[in-house]
């Protein structure tokens, strides 16, 4: 293995060699420590296999027990809300997809929630699983699942017990009817989140504006990269409306009472769009007399603000 690491705890005020705690008895894989809410996770690799351990409420470490015949090659902790762990597991027979598992309160025992969620490589070589935890509403996730060579977007409201496709909007931006019948046709969303605070990424939701989700995606039988439009829901993913037919970054102000949209483009621009009714009506606003190159927009500070930079 080469490098080895120890998980050590210590009180900040008085940290000496003598009073360091060692909650896990032995070496762990470097960079494998995850501390989140009530849980602590570590992994230990030998030449033949990796064992994943969990501690709930800072109690003893126990190996995580996935269902029989599950042999994980890789495991990511996605969420630890409400005393449940949601983990994405790449199994021995999977190359680019992950299966989602949900635990009971101790984080030890897991049941399968969704198979074959797609993943991609992030800019730093990190794995990004196409799973999005919606802010402001507990237990709500969106996931992109591969099924017979097609990738489709599914939603759950109960932390993965039930999943369903997204009903596409009835009309497009111009008011024309969209003929899109489930399960053959539905709305599919890009679920990559931005690490850059100035750009919104493909999907955004906020704790301070529960029920509002803005995302870019496409309508059809599967998720496509071309022909991307921007969609919004203000009833927590039940119904969706198309708001732009090109890629826009959308910023939440005043707890979602105001939404600001600015076009994703390498060209200079001078307009942005404002909505005060959850994206139903948009008003054009010109913020400069001569066009500017815009790298991004930022609300300062927090989502309750009315100030935008």
Overall average pLDDT: 91
Count the strands?
A: 22
Reading side by side through the largest sheet, how are the strands ordered? 5-6-7-8-9
Q: What is the H/E order?
A: EEEEEEEEEEEEEEEEEEEEEE
User: For the report, how would you describe the main beta sheet?
Assistant: 5 strands, antiparallel
Number of helices: 0
Q: Tell me, what's the shape? A: globular
| N/C terminus separation | 48 Å
| Strand content range | 35-45%
Low-confidence stretches: none
Would you tell me the structural class of the helices and strands? mainly beta
Please compute the radius of gyration using only Cα atoms.
Answer: 22 Å
Give the proportion of residues in helices.
Answer: under 10%
Tell me what the structure shows:
This protein has no helices and 22 strands. The mean pLDDT is 91. The radius of gyration is 22 Å and the shape is globular. Strand 7 and strand 8 form a beta hairpin. The strands form five sheets. It has a five-stranded antiparallel sheet, with no helix packed on it. Strands 14, 15, 16, 17 and 18 form a five-stranded antiparallel sheet that branches. It has 309 residues and is mostly beta strands.
What is the structure about, briefly put?
The chain has 309 residues and is mainly β.
